[in-house]
Specification:
Elements: H1 2-34, H2 46-54, H3 56-60, H4 63-81, H5 91-116, H6 133-157, H7 163-176, H8 178-198
Helix pairs in contact: 1-8, 4-6, 4-7, 5-6
């Protein structure tokens, strides 16, 4: 029942964004015709068509897409690894969890050494944390750490039995989150269309 409701909500969001995209195309044409002296750009003009088709890949090349991919990978690994259903009564599970916690502690120590030590390499030229290489690496480091400890737990606890299980877990989240990528494409193009039409 819940999956059916989620699919309906997702479908309506896609329909809404698609209609909004069509509407902004028509509205841009009307506004540019009614207010020719205004700094509006029609998506139906030669300039607009060139922009819409020529800038499509550039519009999609957004850090948000990478974050979405990493988030889906992390989600899939965590779910498949079974780490959320840790059972301390099982010896292998306790060993696996202790090892994963040790890995997490090691990552934290390494990041501290890379950021808090004198002349730390992850700091900016001025010695600040924000903005710096550290601030830019927070999301990927967090994602890779969660993947590492989840995969380690799954292998040591016996939930994963080989490389094929590891690879499948990395892609399962992307399969599960596939609808989000369609939502990203439509939503992203609509957002940049607004910027093009009303941008000064």
């Amino acid at each position: 029942m819940k999956n059916s409701v989620d699919k309906n909500i997702y479908s309506w969001i896609i329909v809404f964004l698609s209609l909004a995209q069509i509407s902004i195309i028509l509205v841009s044409w009307i506004i540019s015709a009614v207010v020719p002296s205004g700094n509006y750009h029609s998506l139906l003009s030669s300039e607009g068509v060139r922009w819409y088709l020529g800038q499509f890949l550039a519009n999609m090349s957004n850090p948000l897409l990478i974050i979405l991919v990493l988030a889906c990978m992390v989600y899939g690994v965590i779910i498949k690894s079974g780490i959320l259903h840790f059972d301390k009564r099982k010896y292998r599970n306790r060993i696996a969890m202790n090892f994963s916690l040790a890995e997490l502690l090691l990552v934290v120590i390494v990041m501290i050494l890379l950021t808090l030590m004198p002349h730390a390499i992850m700091l900016s030229i001025t010695g600040n944390l924000f903005p710096s290489s550290f601030s830019s690496s927070i999301i990927p480091v967090t994602a890779f750490t969660l993947i590492l400890i989840s995969e380690s737990y799954a292998l040591l606890s016996g939930n994963f039995h080989g490389l094929s299980d590891v690879i499948f877990s990395l892609t399962s989240g992307i399969q599960k989150g596939a609808p989000l990528f369609l939502l990203y494409i439509i939503g992203c193009q609509f957002f940049y269309s607004l910027l093009f039409v009303f941008g000064k």
